[in-house]
Each structure stands twice: as C-alpha cells, then as structure tokens.
C-alpha cells in the first residue's frame, strides 16, 4: 500500500492537472512489483479508504482523484522538498497548490476555492497578480 500511495501521489503532483484519473490510479496499483500487487477490488477499497480519511478527494465530475486536505497539510513540507520544481503556492492564501487554476497571462496559480472567494462579489473577474480579465 505504501508503494501505491507514493506512486499515486507522485503522479498527482507531477501532472499538469494536479490529479489522476481513476483508471490510472487503479492501473498504478496493478503495476506494483509482483509481491505487492493488488486486485482491482482491493485497490478500489484502498482508494475509498484514503478518501474517507481525507488523504484523497474523488472528483466524480471528471472521474479523478486529487490530494485531499489531510495530505496537503500533513505532507506539505515533504511535497515541497521532494517536488519543489513541480509545486507552487497559491498566490492568494500562500499555501501549497497542487490542484488549481492558472492565469493564462501570467501563469500564477490559485486554488479554485480561493479564486472563487476572491471574485465572489465582482462584476469583472481579474487576476490579482497581473490584473488581466478572466473569462
């Protein structure tokens, strides 16, 4: 399970989207060394367990998993030291941002919820860094 956790987390961190498709996460579990292989049922139960413990969040709208709040809080120092070149901080709340949105003009990254909160009462949505208009 530990090897599967590392593989799944690493794939999320290194992906541009900050998430892993459900089928990819199950394939990662199946591609483990022979002595650690899991059945599909066991892998699915493991992913469900990680979600219930808030290590992962399942996004059913796009059939993917992303790191959950518990993983981001408890592992943020490790993630930043091990994957510093691939991880940014949210320019609004200044915490680690693996899964979020980027400004198309200045490439600044934000959590979806931070961007929503910032622009909640504005008629025109703008990037707080470069002031360009968001669509």
Label this structure with key terms.
5 helices; three-stranded antiparallel beta sheet; alpha+beta
User: What composes the largest sheet?
Assistant: 3 strands, antiparallel
Given the structure, what is the number of helices?
A: 5
Radius of gyration: 17 Å
> Strands of the largest sheet, in order across it?
1-3-2
Please provide the count of β strands.
7
CA-to-CA gap between the ends?
41 Å
Task: Decide which structural class fits the backbone.
Answer: alpha+beta
Explain this structure:
42% of the residues lie in helices and 14% in strands. With 135 residues, it is of the alpha+beta class. The protein has helices at 2-14, 22-30, 40-52, 69-83, 112-118; strands at residues 19-21, 56-59, 64-67, 88-89, 96-97, 101-102, 109-110. The mean pLDDT is 82. The chain has a 3-stranded antiparallel beta sheet with strand order 1-3-2. Strands 4-5 form a two-stranded antiparallel ribbon.
């Amino acid at each position: 399970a530990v090897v599967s956790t590392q593989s799944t987390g690493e794939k999320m961190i290194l992906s541009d989207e900050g998430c892993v498709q459900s089928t990819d996460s199950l394939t990662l579990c199946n591609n483990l060394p022979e002595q650690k292989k899991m059945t599909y049922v066991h892998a699915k139960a493991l992913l469900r367990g990680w979600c219930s413990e808030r290590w992962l969040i399942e996004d059913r709208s796009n059939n993917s998993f992303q790191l959950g709040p518990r993983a981001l809080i408890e592992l943020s120092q490790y993630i930043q030291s091990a994957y510093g070149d691939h991880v940014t901080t949210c320019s609004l709340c200044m915490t680690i941002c693996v899964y979020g949105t980027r400004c198309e003009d200045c490439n600044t990254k934000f959590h979806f919820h931070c961007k929503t909160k910032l622009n909640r009462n504005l008629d025109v949505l703008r990037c707080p860094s470069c002031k360009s208009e968001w669509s």
